[in-house]
């Protein structure tokens, strides 16, 4: 019977909570609880052609409540698109926390694992794994480490909390170790000290910026909140430092706009900036 088939999913949905307004502490606790309940998917285990039964339809509905992801199989590798921040297990058993709106494609070439990344992710790579992350702005080679990679509008950001990683593009290369971050732009590459809690906080929905071009900050806001920011203001040369949760758009805009002497207006999914 349908009721019996849905029993497991009904039990899962009992752990879900609805959005609410409250203090900062309550909001933060809600974020932590949501992350702790985020499902972990395996690219290997996901069925290529699921049957369209009530069981699968009900499962899909439950996944939508958590935030969902889409899988695609093709001859060139396995692709994963995250509609919400999601934990997955790759076919080589390494772990990835994929940020909202990001996409990866996994390929095995000889003994090497290759990830093609669009967006951002945190990788936990087992010691001894030969692992390469490829992006449109360069590649990152690792050997047993925990690190994050995130593409911005014109920049790419690499942070390392364990081991060592190496970034390289057609003209430059740089290594960073535990506790270091790297910001790579079209004309510069800058190292910085990294708060080792940043990656864990990033999983819980918090964004960190240190002397970041304001255009990049706005790009990250658009991705995090699925919005479009419109502005006729010249943002060139403006830089922002700060951090905030991605659970409250109005609060995030206040924290960005106030120190930049900007104002904003929200109209549905469009945000207009003005002075």
Low-pLDDT runs: 1-25, 34-39, 41-75
The main sheet comes to: 8 strands, mixed
Mean pLDDT: 77
Q: Kindly report the spatial arrangement of strands forming the biggest sheet.
A: 1-4-5-8-11-12-15-16
- Compute the number of strand runs: 21
Query: Treating each run of at least 4 consecutive H or I residues as one helix, how many helices?
Result: 7
Gyration radius from CA atoms, angstroms = 20 Å
**Structural class by sheet pairing and helices:** alpha+beta
Distance, first to last CA = 61 Å
Q: Into which percentage range does the β-strand content fall?
A: 35-45%
Helix-strand string = HHHEHEEEEEEEEEEEEEEEHEHEEHEE
Question: Portion of residues in helices?
Answer: 10-25%
Shape: globular
Topology:
Layout: H1 2-5, H2 7-13, H3 24-36, E1 40-42, H4 54-66, E2 69-74, E3 77-82, E4 86-89, E5 95-98, E6 103-109, E7 112-118, E8 120-125, E9 131-135, E10 138-142, E11 145-151, E12 156-162, E13 164-168, E14 173-177, E15 180-184, E16 189-193, H5 198-203, E17 206-213, H6 214-225, E18 228-231, E19 239-245, H7 249-257, E20 263-267, E21 270-274
Parallel strand pairs: 1-4, 7-9, 18-21
Antiparallel strand pairs: 2-3, 3-6, 4-5, 5-8, 6-7, 8-11, 9-10, 10-13, 11-12, 12-15, 13-14, 15-16, 17-19, 20-21
Task: Fill in the keyword field for this structure.
alpha+beta; eight-stranded mixed sheet; 7 helices; about 25% helix; about 40% strand; globular
Summarize the structure.
By secondary structure, this protein is an alpha+beta fold. It has helices spanning 2-5, 7-13, 24-36, 54-66, 198-203, 214-225, 249-257, and strands spanning 40-42, 69-74, 77-82, 86-89, 95-98, 103-109, 112-118, 120-125, 131-135, 138-142, 145-151, 156-162, 164-168, 173-177, 180-184, 189-193, 206-213, 228-231, 239-245, 263-267, 270-274.
């Amino acid at each position: 019977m349908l009721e019996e088939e849905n029993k497991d999913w009904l039990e899962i949905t009992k752990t879900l909570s609805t959005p609410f307004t409250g203090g900062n502490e309550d909001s933060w606790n809600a974020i932590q609880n949501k992350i702790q309940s985020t499902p972990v998917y395996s690219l290997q285990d996901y069925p290529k052609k699921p049957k369209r039964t009530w069981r699968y339809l009900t499962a899909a509905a439950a996944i939508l409540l958590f935030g969902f992801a889409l899988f695609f199989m093709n001859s060139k590798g396995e692709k994963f698109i995250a509609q919400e921040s999601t934990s997955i297990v790759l076919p080589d058993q390494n772990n990835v926390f994929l940020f909202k709106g990001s996409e990866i494609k996994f390929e095995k070439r000889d003994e090497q694992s290759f990830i093609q990344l669009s967006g951002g992710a945190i990788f936990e790579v087992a010691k001894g794994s030969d692992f390469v992350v490829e992006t449109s702005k360069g590649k990152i080679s690792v050997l047993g480490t925990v690190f994050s990679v995130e593409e911005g509008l014109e920049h790419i950001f690499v942070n390392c909390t364990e081991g060592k990683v190496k970034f390289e593009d057609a003209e430059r290369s740089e290594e960073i170790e535990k506790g270091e971050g790297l910001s790579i732009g079209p004309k510069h590459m800058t190292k910085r000290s990294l708060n080792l809690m940043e990656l864990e906080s990033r999983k819980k929905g918090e964004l960190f910026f240190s002397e970041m071009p304001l255009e990049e900050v706005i790009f990250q806001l658009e991705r995090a909140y699925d919005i479009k920011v419109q502005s006729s203001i010249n943002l060139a040369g403006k830089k922002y430092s700060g951090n905030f949760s991605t659970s409250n758009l109005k609060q995030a805009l206040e924290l960005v706009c106030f120190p930049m002497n900007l104002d904003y207006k929200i109209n549905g999914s469009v945000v207009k900036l003005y002075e």
